[in-house]
Amino acid sequence: MRRRPPSHSRAAAAAAVLLLLLLSPAPSSQLDLGSVIAAWINGAPPPSPSPPAGAGVGASSSSSSAAPSQEYTALQALKAAVTEDPRGALSSWQGANVCAYSGVYCSAPPDGAGAPTVVAGIDLNRASLRGTLPEAVSLLAHLTFLHLNSNRLGGAVPDSLRDLQYLTELDLSNNLFSGLFPASTLLIPSLVYLDLRFNAFSGELPPDVFAKDLDAVFLNDNQFEGQIPETLWSSPATVITLANNRFTGTVPAAYGYGGGGGGRVREVLFLNNNLTGCVPEALGFLPSIQVLDLSYNALSGHLPGTLSCLSVIEVLNVAHNQLTGELPDLLCDLRRITNLSVSFNFFSGISQRCDRQLGSRGVFDFVGNCVPGRDMQRPQPECEGFPGEGGLSCLRIPGARPAGCGGDAAASVGVGVGGLPFGLPGAAAGAGGAVTVTVP
Fold it and tell me: Where does the Leucine-rich repeat-containing N-terminal plant-type domain start and stop, copy by copy (predicted)?
């Protein structure tokens, strides 16, 4: 049975993330990602975007010019593929002047040639349309955004989307699309914003999804399964949401520092999957991470002290896992933290230092653990019956603040799990050198 976070936890996370994003610089995508993330946390659709500069809708966008026949053909094919239109969103889609259609935005062509105006975007968000998305949509050769969220469109995503060379934003969220990950979206040359959340996509993710030059990747609330590709940390995206799927295996540990390799990511949501194994040490070297949610999985072992290197993090949630040992004191030094949740694990110790620095601020949640003498902890028999540390699979090197925090990125030290080493930037290993400890 799949678990869902309780509503009060999601509401708390929503408030924290909304505050975070209001304070964050806007991403390069045309759509405001702060609003998008806050909407995702609440399970609501994102707001409608503003049309691009110079675009118009209806007669204001050069109604006197004749529309190219292929654009008329494409829009009529889209209308024909809709079997139910309860709100009459497409009632104005009649006649050759496609720039007068409701939800259709026109502007001058990006290549400066041909017709004086072309269809630059379609926004049919929250129209409750039922039907499919036809292959003929690719005839809209100058389309820059396609927003169809919160409808009842289903079936497969057409392969012809790869032909939309100017498309930068594709929002198919909150629909009934199904099948494997739509690989055609990764062949759209200009795409920077991909939103497929709240659909019924299934199967494994192709590694190329994180090699694409995207600014935002929303894949949550589908039926994706298998392991999360190790290419995750090569993505240049600022926001990656993988929550509420069926992913298994471990959290990807390979991390390439800088040059887009995780260097820009600000929010990563892994919550409510079936992930196992350790919390990778390498997560502590994500330089820009502000929200990291690993809750509602089956992660085990100790939390790595490297997480204390996350100097700009505001939300860190590892609740509802199988983590053990003592909570690292260093985590309580995170100055920007607004929500630190380690609840419903098997932690055996939490220091007074954490109480002093975080408890007094009301941002620290450690209920449902195994800390002696604390209120709202697990029953003692439940703590004694827990399997324990999981052997050496989650080896942690003890000590003070990790050497890699803010250090020289040219040097690296790594701890590998299962014979697979990975590099941690900035640790004192000599100029350009690397030290690797491998655990069988």
Answer: 69-107
Whether residue 317 has pLDDT greater than 60: yes
Q: What is the pTM of this model?
A: 0.77
Residue 354's pLDDT band (cuts 50, 70, 90): confident
Q: pLDDT of 4-22, one tens digit each?
A: 444 444 444 444 433 333 3
pLDDT at 177: 98
